[in-house]
Amino acid sequence: MSDTQRGFTAVAVVSAAYIAAQMLADITSLRIVLIAGFSVDAGTLIYPFTFTLRDLVHKTAGIRAARWLIITAGIINLFMAGLFWLVAKLPPDMHVGAQLAFGQVLAPVWRIVIASIIAEVASELVDGEVYQLWVNRVGHRLQWLRVLTSNSVSVPLDSALFCSLAFIGRLPFFTVVSIFWANIIAKGVITLISLPWIYLVREGRAQTAA
Questions:
Q1: To 5 degrees, how large is the angle CA 195–CA 196–CA 201?
Q2: 42 with 29: CB under 8 angstroms?
Q3: Residues 104-108: contacts with CB within 8 Å, 24+ apart?
Q4: What 3-state DSSP class applies to 209?
Q5: Hey, is 156 helix, strand or coil?
Q6: For the chain, which ranges sit under pLDDT 70?
Q7: What is d(CA 210, CA 206) in angstroms, rounded to the nearest whole number?
Q8: Alpha-carbon distance 34 to 42, whole Å?
């Protein structure tokens, strides 16, 4: 397999993983769970990995490809929410068990869905710009620090946007603050866990293109 084929395969696999993680995060964000005494939207268990996955695409295919991936994922998530809404509205076959309950779970809470998509797109685009700024200023050295720097900006932004847009006025303010800090902590831990992933792919020729 040539280097070009390897690069294409890497981008395809990582992009698929990124979109899958985004979709799973949006679905599970509808559930608020308790972890170590903190209120946490369950999407936090998977969503933080998307920042490093985005960095992998950026490293291999460049910032333009990363931007298109972010926008595409946002559109797919919006389509997914609309499909869930339609399926939940269609009359269920009552000969099959648990259909009403399934529809209630499947139907999206639009405020959370829109908040999630806005936060994802905005924070991931900012992540890309910070990542690219690092490459332009520092070059290709200290790849782990490149990821850590971009994520340290995008993670708080994502949590602040999502929590404020999705929950302020709907949940008690103390709960919203709890969700925010739990998001920051969880995403910070997962960022550290996923840092070594940046070494799984090769630097692409388009990587420095702004």
A1: 110
A2: yes
A3: 105/30, 108/30, 108/81, 108/84
A4: coil
A5: helix
A6: 1-3, 97-99, 102-103, 105-106, 205-210
A7: 9
A8: 9
Q: Which residues contact 177 (CB under 8 A, 6 or more apart)?
A: none
Distances (CA, A) of 81 to 43, 112, 142: 15, 10, 39
Residue the block writes with tokens 């009552």: 94
Domain boundaries, the chain: 3-204
Amino acid at 11: V
Nearest to 131 by CA among 36, 82, 65: 65
Q: What is the 3-state secondary structure (H, E, C) of 180-198?
A: HHHHHHHHHHHHHHHHHHH
Q: Which CATH architecture has domain 3-204?
A: Orthogonal Bundle (1.10)
The DSSP secondary structure of 20-87, one letter per residue, reads: HHHHHHHHHTT-EEEETTEEEEGGGGTTTHHHHHHHHHHHHH-HHHHHHHHHHHHHHHHHHHHHHHHH
Please state, in angstroms and rounded to a whole number, the distance separating the CA atoms of residues 192 and 159.
17
For residue range 130-173, list pLDDT tens digits in order: 999 998 998 878 888 888 999 899 999 999 998 899 888 888 88
Q: How far apart are CA 102 and CA 88, in angstroms?
A: 8
